TrEMBL record:
GO terms for biological process: GPI anchor biosynthetic process. Its main location: endoplasmic reticulum. It comes from Rhodonia placenta. This is Protein PBN1. The keyword Oxidoreductase does not apply. Belongs to the PIGX family. GO terms for cellular component: endoplasmic reticulum membrane. Keywords: Endoplasmic reticulum, Glycoprotein, GPI-anchor biosynthesis, Membrane, Transmembrane, Transmembrane helix. The lineage of its organism: Eukaryota, Fungi, Dikarya, Basidiomycota, Agaricomycotina. It is found in: Endoplasmic reticulum membrane. Pathway: Glycolipid biosynthesis; glycosylphosphatidylinositol-anchor biosynthesis.
Length: 218
């Protein structure tokens, strides 16, 4: 068994793909398949979008603040665990996860690199009666992300990865500091024009209602 991964997409919308090769399903007939993603602050998964995927159910901790720029979120990783619902016949299980990059801080180079860790895949198999009292600890790679009660009655088996690199490097466009004054001026101008339009619309509406009321009286 082996795990291979890839990341596709451009700009702020990405797809993280995991392909799990299963040589013999009979060896894991009673086990559940899971894929774990560690997402840096620059990247988030939309739980509402994930809920529409029939191939898996998901758990995300902590919950994502959708659409916030990276400057406005807590600078800590989030953990996405997928419970994969795979048919027990195909030799390969493909898991596609939609991800989104946050708007980054301005940078002189007008782009921002993000290191996205490769996902981890594992089997959770029911423990025997002898090991239930003292279940084995998860593999070291998974211990920082799995709470003790999450798979307390299961033995965890990490699926080896065939990836040469333990991360994927992606690049997103960002603004440059030299553009900030123009953005500020443009934002202020638009807000001023909106205010003027609202005042004009309010006065015009008031005059029209007043004329209509006076005409009815005459």
């Amino acid at each position: 068994m082996a795990l291979s991964t890839s990341v596709s997409g451009q700009g702020f919308h990405l797809t993280a793909s995991s392909r799990i090769r299963v040589d013999d399903w009979s060896l894991v007939a009673h086990c559940s398949l899971h894929v774990l993603h560690v997402l840096p602050p620059d990247v988030y998964a939309d739980p509402y979008e994930l809920a529409l995927r029939p191939a898996y159910s998901s758990r995300l901790h902590p919950a994502s603040d959708l659409e916030l720029p990276v400057a406005a979120v807590n600078h800590s990783d989030s953990v996405l665990i997928l419970d994969v619902h795979a048919p027990r016949t195909a030799p390969d299980v493909l898991v596609d996860v939609p991800l989104h990059a946050r708007y980054g801080n301005p940078a002189p180079a007008s782009y921002h690199p993000i290191a996205l860790p490769s996902p981890l895949a594992f089997w959770a198999c029911p423990s025997s009666a002898r090991t239930l009292a003292h279940p084995p600890a998860p593999p070291p790679q998974l211990q920082p992300y799995l709470s003790p009660e999450m798979f307390s009655s299961h033995a965890i088996s990490l699926i080896p990865s065939s990836a040469a690199d333990e991360r994927a490097d992606i690049v997103i466009p960002v603004g440059t500091p030299s553009h900030l004054p123009l953005v500020d001026i443009g934002t202020a101008s638009v807000m001023l024009l909106m205010f003027v339009y609202l005042v004009y619309a309010s006065i015009s509406t008031a005059q029209r209602l007043h004329s209509h009321h006076r005409a009815k009286k005459d």
